[in-house]
Amino acid sequence: MSATNADILLHPIRLRIVLALGAERALTTAAIAERLPDIAHATLYRHVAVLAEAGVLEVVDERRVRGGVERTYALVAEAAQLGAADVADMEPEELLRGFVVFAGTLIEAFGRYVADPQARPEQDLLSYRQAALWLDEDERATLVERLTAAIGPALGNGPAEGRQRVLLSTVLVPDLAASARTERDDGEG
């Protein structure tokens, strides 16, 4: 993926569209608009077109509706993520901007949840946590593999009676400053 595609994915509205489609098998633009009611339709259609043109979304169905064509889109999973090589090519400012966009979509989703009169945090098992882990490279890779294996089966689930859509967000950020302090402290004595 080129830096241009990183720019495509890291736009706040396009990231929300990708996240909306990531939870569904396929959606029409009208269905995407229902899930993102705060985005003006013209703006939403423009951003869906950008994602489709970039190959992040693909048209999986078309049908005639009131003289127009209604398209159904699906997410092209491989094109909707930034890999290690993509991240390696990004400047620190781009990485920070991407994370700010990600965090903004997370904050926006949380805000929608807590503002919803039907929200029941204790019953919905709402949680957010941060844990500091000391891991070497192999342990970190093993952790990511285990998390992927644990989450993998649920990723294929679609909407069904009794299921509630849940957003799971993960962030692994090396704490270089703490590691450097520990190494300095270990060498002092």
Key terms:
single chain, 189 residues, mainly alpha, 3-stranded antiparallel sheet, 8 helices, 10% strand, globular
Task: Please give a structural write-up.
The structure is a single chain. The chain is built from 8 helices and 3 strands. The protein has 189 residues and is mainly α. Strands 1-3-2 form a 3-stranded antiparallel beta sheet. The longest helix is centred in the middle third of the chain and has 24 residues. The N and C termini lie far apart (47 Å).
Q: What's the quick description here?
A:
The chain is mainly α and 189 residues long. It is 52% helix and 10% strand. The protein has helices at 3-9, 12-22, 29-35, 41-53, 84-88, 92-115, 137-155, 176-187; strands at 27-28, 57-65, 68-75.
- Largest sheet, spatial ordering of strands: 1-3-2
Strand content: 5-15%
* Largest sheet entry: 3 strands, antiparallel
Give the helix proportion (percent range): 40-55%
What's the helix-strand series? HHEHHEEHHHH
Oligomer: single chain
Alpha-carbon Rg, integer:
20 Å
What number is the mean pLDDT?
85
Shape: globular
Distance between the termini: 47 Å
SS elements, strand count: 3
Poorly predicted spans: none
Q: What's the number of helices?
A: 8
> How does the helix and strand content classify structurally?
mainly alpha
